[in-house]
Specification:
By secondary structure, this protein is mainly β. The protein has one helix and ten strands. About 10% of the residues are buried.
Length: about 130
C-alpha cells in the first residue's frame, strides 16, 4: 500500500509540475501603442501627441523578432504611416536590450525602465503602453 501511495504521489507531482511553471516572460513581449510624445523647445515641453501619432505601434515577439510602424500627421484625417520596419531584439538582462533593424549591422543598445506593473515604458521623449 505504501508503495502504491508513493507511486501515486510521484505521478501527481510530475503531472502538476511543468516546465512552463518556471518560465519568466520578458516584459517587453507584446504589442505597444504610443501613449505620449513630447519635445523640448527653449526649455518648454511641447506635447506632440495626437490621434495620428497614437496609431504608432511596436511589436516584440517571443521569438526575438520585432516590427514597428510609426505614424505622423496633424490629426486622424491627415495621418500617414512611415511604413513597417522589421528587425530582431535581444535582452541582455537588467532592462538592457539590443535592437537590430533588418539590413542593419550594428544593434542599438537601449536601457528600458518599465513602470506601472510592466505596462508602460518611456524611451527618450516617447511613452509606450502595452495593449
Amino acid at each position: 500500500m505504501k508503495k502504491l501511495l508513493s507511486i501515486a504521489a510521484a505521478l501527481l507531482l510530475a503531472v502538476s509540475c511543468s516546465d512552463d511553471d518556471n518560465t519568466v516572460t520578458d516584459p517587453i513581449i507584446g504589442t505597444w501603442k504610443l501613449e505620449k510624445q513630447v519635445t523640448q523647445d527653449n526649455g518648454q515641453t511641447i506635447d506632440e501627441t495626437n490621434e495620428c501619432t497614437k496609431k504608432s505601434t511596436l511589436v516584440f515577439n517571443s521569438d526575438g523578432t520585432t516590427t514597428s510602424e510609426f505614424y505622423g500627421g496633424t490629426d486622424a484625417t491627415n495621418c500617414n504611416s512611415d511604413g513597417v520596419d522589421k528587425g530582431t531584439w535581444k535582452s541582455n538582462g537588467s532592462g538592457v536590450y539590443e535592437f537590430l533593424e533588418d539590413g542593419g549591422t550594428t544593434p542599438d543598445v537601449i536601457t528600458i525602465n518599465f513602470t506601472d506593473n510592466n505596462t508602460k515604458f518611456t524611451f527618450g521623449s516617447v511613452t509606450w503602453k502595452k495593449q
